[in-house]
């Protein structure tokens, strides 16, 4: 699994490095061509502020995500993240086909989740302090973004095989994430921030 993560990370880095040149040559693509992924849902540029709430249930689990209004639907934002402050890293894919990275430290003061939509060269990311609560037996993680102040709440369940399941509700679905190398994950997140448009 570790080799697969390395291959995916290297492939992602190469795709991100080549894609801006290709997008410049062809004029890019519109994120309104299709809908349904987290980045596309947040990339609706028709309003100057967004507020979304997603409630969903899957069996006995319920999760919700909400982001408070922001002044811009898309922006250039960059998080300060280093391998020395991260103690766990996970990577996987969402049901919508996005690459998902989840990082955190032991005390929750630095937790982040990053959704990459490589087709549209966009990402949705939240990084900052996190709190964990329980609702109906499910652990809910709420991240308060350090740049925008928006919050995101989602369910997290540890699986028997060492993976975790992130539950974003019925609209955005779930993602199964496997443990990943911290340095490679931080490097991938830095590449994503440098080469894609961040939307919230």
Dominant shape: globular
* Beta-strand content: 35-45%
Helix content, binned percent: 10-25%
- Output the strand order for the largest sheet: 3-13-7-6-5-4-12-11-10-9-8
Structural class call reads: alpha+beta
Instruction: Report the radius of gyration as a whole number of Å.
Output: 16 Å
Low-confidence segments, ≥5 residues, pLDDT <50?
1-75
How many discrete domains? Answer: 1
Counting DSSP E segments of at least 2 residues, the number of strands comes to 13
Helix count from the secondary structure assignment: 4
The major β-sheet equals: 11 strands, mixed
Give an overview in words.
By secondary structure, the chain is of the alpha+beta class. It has one domain (2-199). It is built from 4 helices and 13 strands. The strands form 2 sheets. It has an 11-stranded mixed β-sheet. A two-stranded antiparallel sheet has the order 1-2. A hairpin with a 2-residue loop joins strand 1 and strand 2 (61-67). The longest helix has 25 residues, at 2-26. It starts with a helix and ends with a strand. Residues 1-24 form the signal peptide. Residues 27-78 are annotated as: Disordered. Residues 27-37 have a biased composition (Polar residues). Residues 46-78 have a biased composition (Low complexity). Keywords: Signal.
Please summarize what this structure is.
Keywords: Signal. The chain is α+β, with helices and mostly antiparallel strands and about 200 residues long. The protein has helices at about 1-25, 40, 170, 180-195; strands at about 50-60, 60-65, 75, 90-95, 100-105, 110-115, 120-130, 130-135, 140-145, 150-160, 165, 175-180, 195-200.
